[in-house]
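Why do we care about 3D structure at all? Because function follows from shape, and shape follows, mostly, from sequence. That is the central idea of this module. The next example makes it concrete: a single protein chain, its amino acid sequence, and then its structure expressed as tokens.
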Amino acid sequence: MVTAVSPQTADPDVYEEGVQRIVPLDPALLERDECNAREHDIEPDAKLIASVKELGVEEAISVRPRPDGTYAVFKGWRRAQSAQIANATAEQEGRPLRTVNAFVRADLVGRDGWTRFLSLVENDHRQDMDTRDTLKAQELSLVSMDEVDQARAAKAMGLKKGAVKHLRTVQQLDDATLRQATAGGMDLEQTAQLAEVEGVDNAPQRLLRALARDQEDGRGGRGHWDQEFALLMEEQASIKARAQATAALKESGVPLLSSLPYETRKAARPLADLTTGLGNPLTVDNHHGCHGHCATLDEDNRPVWLCSEPAANGHKARKQPKKPRTAQDEEQAAQKAAERARVVACNRAWKAAAGPRQQFVERLVRSKTLPDQARLFAQAVVLDLPEFYGKWAGKRDTSEVARFLGAKEGQDTTPSSLASALPKTRLANVLFAQVAAACEADIRDPKTYDMLRYQTTYLWEAPSPQQAAYLLLLEALGQADNGSYALSEVENQAVARHRSQTPPAT
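And the structure:
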């Protein structure tokens, strides 16, 4: 049988399937190409087999020639198998043996990445491919290509920068979560981010709710998603820190209170509440050799040292006035515990919100034209010199400014050198970068001290007018930018009472 093959070329644009000669091939010579993107559901169904028995393979398949005279099918393997099955029983059923029309792609020999990509496109456009097959094929296709082919293929598949990394990450998800993400409308980058935090309770549901809020806004942004993802990352970091702290205690031989029997846990007391038999304080150093030495972890994953059997080890309770425990006492204790849990949650959320907020500031600073609202805000701060700006300037730490202006991690450079490379039309961007750095320093720690009331306060309860103005400015700019940035829940809580005001920048 005479075959015609396409000429080998390094340029995939040269090939157009529609103008190539179609070659009839014996189905017995067809084998599945190792770069065929479909790995699941590869068997032909009864309907397809029946059609091929009756009519043959009507649409040409695509193959690569092999040195041994066989052909590797990267498009149409289910059709090729149907032809093999049909020919296997043709003689007994009184049907003629049929050939299969094929495009023979000699130009793809040795080009596994592009072959896999073409197979992926074919299968993706036909019967729904298994999601995991699609992801794996996309990753393997791009990894095997040179930069030029990779850019063209990524564009054709609608993928963005960093696609290979995202594809590899996404495949770590189990099938159920992967289906849930796809059905919920997550794009590749978002699905990869889900894979990063899937160990946190209800991560898929929380991210899907955030995605739905972004979709409801109808601007095409992902402000709510970014905030929820940042919070999940913060929670995951806390989980990891707790696991590390727990492991460190176990390695040092200190038992965890939670691992002890219930009756023992019930009798345990913190060292701060105990003394030695002579009334001296107990510390982790002088108590370490005690048989009852144990520990638990507080909400910040720091060890709290205890004795599980204080009486048996000769310890005494510090003298404290005893008060009868009433129902009111119980209620106050419960309220105190709930308030402490709220403080911990709000502090964690405040720190998490800094990530998306600063990423948005970076985008503003690096944009060609700074929004006028941002320019006026920065101008007012620099000219009026509010107290927070002076405090920041006195510390002479310009690393945040350099980062906003584009300094890479570990790069030894100054904001002035970065700014000198910018055109003079971007002076306002530089100015805003400096003011934003001062504002970020001012709101970095959620816990502060009220000098007038002599008590600890939290920014998420009562930010200053300047702090609220900064957050409200970013919110307005994010919404104007198609919803690319939105305040987090804890930031919304902080600025609620400032929304009807227009606070000055001084």
